[in-house]
Specification:
It is a single chain. The protein is mainly alpha-helical and 153 residues long. It folds into two domains: 60 residues, no CATH class; 67 residues, Muramoyl-pentapeptide Carboxypeptidase, domain 1 (Orthogonal Bundle). The chain is built from six helices and no strands. The chain is globular, with a radius of gyration of 15 Å. The two termini are 17 Å apart.
Length: 153
């Protein structure tokens, strides 16, 4: 959402990425929903996630989300945003340690660093690319951490 706020089409102050869905996040979510012309319920569900990439600067020509697409540097879209939520959930659950970044649907340097942190935790190749092995391992970590507070899922 921060990318939509700082260079996209949504007017709202940037959010602090802290893993907490508080009043600022709810307000930002409603601002995104209003800009997208969807119901302003404050819930970051599939409709909101699907609309967000279209509100990002330069995202008008982004490919449609594909949950199995290989993700790497410069990828853009809802599937990148979903992956950022997964990594955020793993950070919140204490499974990986990585600096905070914007949940913006853009696979930039911080998302690459988060991906590498997940891959290190899984003891798999640390190439910063999200493919089937990285996705499956992250899903297993999230399932194992089900008793912890997991962000976005």
């Amino acid at each position: 959402m921060n990318r939509a706020f700082t260079g996209g089409t949504v007017e709202h102050p940037a959010l602090i990425v802290d893993g907490v869905y508080g009043p600022a996040t709810a307000s930002g979510t409603r601002a995104v929903q209003a800009a997208a012309g969807i119901a302003r319920d404050g819930v970051v569900g599939p409709v909101t996630r699907g609309a967000l990439p279209g509100l990002l600067p330069g995202a008008r020509n982004a490919p449609a989300s594909a949950s199995e697409r290989r993700l790497s540097s410069d990828a853009l879209g809802g599937d990148v945003l979903d992956w950022q939520w997964v990594v955020g959930g793993l950070v919140a659950a204490g499974e990986v340690d990585t600096p905070r970044w914007a949940l913006d649907g853009v696979f930039g340097p911080a998302t690459t660093a988060g991906t590498i942190a997940v891959q290190k935790r899984l003891s798999i190749t640390t190439d910063g690319i999200v493919g089937p092995v990285t996705r499956a391992g992250a899903a297993d970590l999230l399932a194992a951490s089900a008793g912890s507070q997991v962000v976005g899922r």
